[in-house]
Amino acid sequence: MELNELYSQFNEELRLSKNRASRIEFYTTLNFIKKYIKAGDRVLDIGAGTGVYTKLFAELGHHVSAVELAKPNVIKMKNSLYMIPNIDIFEGNAIDLSMFADHSFDLVLCLGPLYHLSSVQGKMKCVEEAKRVCKKGGIIFFAYISNDMVFVTETMLYNSKFLNSEHYENPFRVKDGPFCFITVGQMRQLMKKSGLEKVAHFAADGLSELLGDKINAMSEDQFGEWLNFHFHTCEKSECLGYSNHIVFVAKNV
User: Which of 110, 111, 138 is nearest to 196 (CA)?
Assistant: First the structure.
């Protein structure tokens, strides 16, 4: 399935907010961004989707440039964010950011493009472009989808025949397309090749998709404590792979 078709069917604007379980990824990622963003920082949101982070940081006073490949998402973003003056929206590709000069941004969010790049060359080009447009000393967030946790959720939640299906590739690989999957080890190798400096590596949503029904049934107090537990464990190396979405935070040295 091609991206325009995918995102014309998929309600991207609700993905991070439809229920408590889905909001854990947003809360966790936002917590980490707030550690590194500074007043006056120029922000680039690559693979901005429908502009959840673009809108938030523009409303906090940052100038935000948003780049999105899927036309349905670009249209939604332009329709909903046109009244906010400090946002520039571009329909473009993460592997070609030639509309921006070198070292233009203090903070770069790449929270979606690696979800759709299957080849190592494509992933590396995406990383190189994010690095090129980021200022020296700037921070880049790279999100990716964990092969190992998707293996679990596909098997246990979505498809009882997954292990006998064409979507499973031995040994223990989820077949790419239209979403692409990386292991923690593969991401570490990619970042090592990039020459970027590791700042943090965290599980963005942990077990929230697998345990979504139970999390959504919690009381407010229980959910708060569960969220605190997730924050407490999300950087532990033994927990990284068991999260559908993982984020590597890097410094451009």
Answer: 138
CATH of 3-251, one of 3.40.50.2000, 3.40.50.150, 3.30.420.10, 1.10.357.10: 3.40.50.150
- pTM higher than 0.85: yes
Q: What is the pLDDT along the chain (253 residues), one digit of tens a residue?
A: 677 787 777 777 778 888 999 999 999 999 999 999 999 999 999 999 999 999 999 999 999 999 999 999 999 999 999 999 999 999 999 999 999 999 999 999 999 999 999 999 999 999 999 999 999 999 999 999 999 999 999 999 999 999 999 999 989 999 998 999 999 999 999 999 999 999 999 999 999 999 999 999 999 999 999 999 999 999 999 999 999 999 999 999 9
Q: Are strands 173-174 and 168-169 parallel, antiparallel or unpaired?
A: antiparallel
Q: For residues 15 and 24, what is the distance between their CA atoms, to the nearest angstrom?
A: 11
Q: In which residue are the tokens 């993905």 written? A: 15
C-beta separation of 198 from 134 below 8 A: no
Whether the CA torsion 116, 112, 52, 42 is positive or negative: it is: negative
The H or E element that residue 42 is part of is strand 42-46
**110 in helix, strand or coil?**
strand
Domain spans of the chain, in order of start: 3-251
Q: Alpha-carbon torsion 51, 52, 58, 62, what sign?
A: negative
